[in-house]
Write a structure and sequence with these properties.
The protein has helices at 2-7, 37-45, 58-78, 143-149, 158-167, 175-186, 223-230; strands at residues 10-20, 26-36, 84-92, 95-105, 113-124, 130-140, 192-198, 201-207, 211-217, 221-222. It is an alpha+beta fold. Helix 3 (58-78) packs antiparallel against helix 5. The relative contact order is 0.20.
Length: 231
């Protein structure tokens, strides 16, 4: 399952996009797309607003990552989950990417329980010019039960517990997300993507009857821009 959350790219799904409005409410755009999710995400980075949308230095980003890593590890231990740590340097899309991350895979988890987790810091380029923090998790989702009950409670899942480590918002209202997940399940293909942003972070919920893959990440932070702003 870890491969699934790291490799979802080409999608032909209903995409639900939440757009923040000045009055604090949200509007909803719905479209059917066939596209490379990496390209879609790059476009969404430019629309991010909030604390996490600000460019910071590499040391600041590493500090934030290390602090979050402690919290993610503690949460995993609280849930009794065994994880592994890795450091890799690979060429991706003709670019050197240094990655420091933890991950875990659960074999045959119960329905509505965590299946896999990835949390990492990526530094891009041989000169480490840009960086990004990404969290991806998958839930072994009981979509049939949700359809029968007519109710989804994302806030009651472990995905929400991990997300809270990033957002620092223990009282977050997921009612719009819950509704859109149910809308996806009721759609013709019973699968789709919900896109959202929160405090400068990009959020994505890939949903079908068998799983929810949740992603929350920063944009690609430009360290040079941060240094220029300091000057």
């Amino acid at each position: 399952m870890l491969k699934k959350i790291l490799s979802i790219s080409a999608v032909a799904l209903i995409t639900f996009t939440f757009i923040a409005c000045g009055n604090g409410n949200t509007q909803l755009n719905q479209k059917t797309t066939t596209s490379d999710s990496n390209t879609v995400t790059e476009e969404n980075y430019s629309k991010l607003e909030g604390a996490w949308a600000k460019d910071i230095t590499i040391d600041e980003l590493k500090g934030k990552y290390n602090s979050l890593l402690v919290a993610v590890e503690a949460k995993s231990k609280e849930f009794g989950l065994a994880y592994q740590k890795e450091e890799t340097v690979k060429e991706e899309n003709k670019e050197t990417v240094n990655k420091n991350y933890i991950y875990l895979d659960q074999k045959d988890p119960k329905k509505n329980h965590l299946e896999s987790l990835y949390f990492g810091l990526s530094l891009y380029g041989s000169d480490l010019a840009m960086g990004q923090i990404t969290m991806k998790l998958s839930l072994n989702f009981d979509g049939d039960k949700a359809l029968k009950s007519g109710e989804v409670k994302f806030e009651d899942t472990s995905l929400a517990d991990y997300s809270e480590l990033f957002t620092k918002n223990p009282k977050r209202d997921y009612s719009d997300v819950d509704k859109k997940i149910l809308d996806v399940l009721k759609s013709e293909n019973s699968e789709g993507v919900i896109e959202n942003s929160i405090d400068g972070l990009y959020e994505e919920f890939t949903v079908n009857k068998e799983y929810i893959v949740y992603k929350i990440e920063t944009k690609k932070i430009d360290f040079a821009k941060a240094i220029e702003e300091i000057k």
